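Hello,

Our lab assistant flagged a job as stuck in the queue for most of the afternoon. It eventually completed. Since we weren't sure the result was trustworthy after the delay, we are filing this so someone can double-check. Below is the sequence as submitted and the structure that was eventually returned. Let us know if re-running is recommended.
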Amino acid sequence: MISALNGQIGLAYAFVEREIALSKRYWAWEIVWLVYGIVTSLSVAYIGLAAPAISGGQVDEAAVSHFVLYLLVGTIAWRFLGIIFENIGEVIAWERWEGTIEYTFMSPVPRLTHLLGMCGATLVRSVTFSIAILAAVALFVPVDLSKANALSAVVLLAVGALAFIGLGIASASFPLMWTEKGLQMAYIVQAVVLLVSGVYYPVEVLPGWMQLLATISPATYVIRGMRAALMDGADLATLWPEIWPALIVGVLSIPLGLRLFIAVERYAKRTGRLKRSG
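-- returned structure --
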């Protein structure tokens, strides 16, 4: 049993190595997306710094600094979660672009092993990008993290990663069902989650029906908890009301997303939708 488990871990790691090789092959695109993440984060930070000029009023420096940090925490936390969602949601699209979808999906590799390997590679990429973006932004914008509780922030990101892995696996089934428009549907899901999760503003400013959607978005709890952890130094006990809803979404969404993906994969194979183009 142990040898079988080691074999599956080895197979999963093979997908991690493949993704690393693809990143090296398309290194210029990796730089593009890294620069994009840095520039968008800086743009949001400068919006915060420009608040006094935009409002036409007198805003003290402490309030501006608090506002900038509020925006940056939401932006970088969303970038971390968004990369996880996008990379897993694009699993099918990448296989088609590389012309390997038939080989991957007809190979004797359990789908769970395949997806776990892809998730591992995605987490490595998300962490790397998030650290690089935060470091780059700190060079341009003063960020006060003296009150930050690093342990709480790491736990929240881990819980959020679980939830978004499940959502990403479920969304990855769209391109299997609809070869031409499936990936766009996954992006629509991501856009709706961005809108209702309070990335740049408190969810309380949203219309009532959007606030209802916010309660089922794991990003709402992760981002709100991240702000409390990094801006106020909140500990895990204080953040538990934010942790457990996102944790439940993660625990439920991963097996449900996996079952949906496997069911759609069988349908795609039966109807001949595993093809390289179209």
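-- support follow-up --
The delay was a queue issue, not a problem with the job. The result is valid. The longest helix spans residues 236-271. Residues 2-271 form one domain.
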